[in-house]
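Please annotate the following for my students:
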Amino acid sequence: MSVLPLTQPTAPLRFSWLKQFCRHAGAVFGAIIVLIIIFAAITANWFYPTDPLRIVAIPEIWPFTDWRYPLGTDSMGRDITALIVHGARATLLIGLSSSLAATLIGVTVGASAAWFGGWIDEVLMRITELFQVIPNIVFVLTVVSVLGPQMINVIIAVGLVSWQPIARLTRAEFLSFKEREFILACRASGMSAFQTVTREILPNVMPPVIVLASLVVAGAILYESVISFLGLGDPNLASWGRLVGEGRTLIRSSYYICAIPGVAIMLAVLALNLIGDGLNDALNPKLRERS
């Protein structure tokens, strides 16, 4: 008789965070925007199979004046719609890859500092503080200038300036779990350090890290936009920031060239921040219990 009451509640608990996330109206709106951007990135080659950087018409066709070019053309006669949908692919790839790189570095550094402690903790935290005092945008521009304007170099640069908050958060979470009873029991039972960290501590530490990683994606998109705006992005890729930079000289006569990709950047960053708020409400156990 005691089996059913114990086993029945476990199934809905697995998806309780998703229900809580769906109750957050802003997070749902952000998720819809991100899904639209993902759809545009996936289907870019289907709707616009040719090179988006090629000239297709006369320059400065205003939006909604020619059905062949719904968002008009830029100063060189390129289709802005094609640039936007292909730019979504580059923007998402750089944002997600940079966030993944920052998360891997941050979790590794923070977990190592908290688990080993002593001089290892001191050295790793001083290195983290060293990266924090360097102006991020200056560091990113320097790395891209030295390594070259390629997508992989942009990902490396953005990842190197984004891992410090994740490392500090991971270290704090590890320290809070390191001395708990179930961790001490695992170590007393002979479980190896690797198994204890990966099976017991990491699953409990990752929820707040995931929330922070979603915000890192938004920051990475802004960094990439700044790099492309200044002309240091990959010249072979369509980029929202690059389109804004190229259209700034015509902002008085054809402001839409800057406005359209600027709105795309704003919506993408806003959506990711809203998703981060929703994940925080859904994955934070204190907020979940309160609701």
Q: What stands out?
A: The chain has a mean pLDDT of 85. The two ends are 31 Å apart (CA to CA). DSSP finds 15 helices and no strands in the chain. The chain has one domain: 15-40+89-290.
